[in-house]
Amino acid sequence: MSPSMTPTTPLADGEEVLQSFRADRATYVRTNTWMAAVAMGAGMVILWLLGNPYVWTGAVGGLAAVAVRAFYLMSEALSERWDLTNQRILGPMTRAIPLGSIKQLNTLGSVVQIVTHSGDKYLIKYQTAPKATIAAIQRASVGGHP
To answer: Which UniProt keywords are present, listed alphabetically (predicted)?
Structure first.
């Protein structure tokens, strides 16, 4: 059986879930569509540079590679959930990030990257509005509600 992609860490005394962040299906599809376009172009350029007369096969290969990857990872990626509490961010399985340990919040496309003071990095993937996710985390970090 595969591990749960939702938080399994129990809440501490006085801790409450303020907001949950789930992966969005449309954002997942859009992200993988862009990846496929880049892979198709890269495959064609590589074959052209190598002098291959069948440059078009690079597009087919790039599309196939990303499509297979997207298909196999979709159920896991879309089942991920992160919970923002008044004390921590709880991630899939037992990931727990105290709000006070957050050094930096970054966006990478549809992904929110959390960097801690110790250098650990976490990704909240496929967010429809990554800047809104960051704003909610920042509000909770200073004691407000998202």
So the answer is: Membrane, Transmembrane, Transmembrane helix
DSSP states of 42-106 as a string?
Answer: HHHHHHHHTT-S-THHHHHHHHHHHHHHHHHHHHHHHT-EEEEESSEEE-SBT-EEEGGGEEEEE
Domain coordinates in residue numbering, the chain: 17-22+81-141, 25-77
Structure token digits, residue 120? 């650990």
Per-residue pLDDT of the chain (146 residues; tens, 9 = 90+): 456 799 999 999 999 999 999 999 999 999 999 999 999 999 999 999 999 999 999 999 999 999 999 999 999 999 999 999 999 999 999 999 999 999 999 999 999 999 999 999 999 999 999 999 999 999 999 886 66
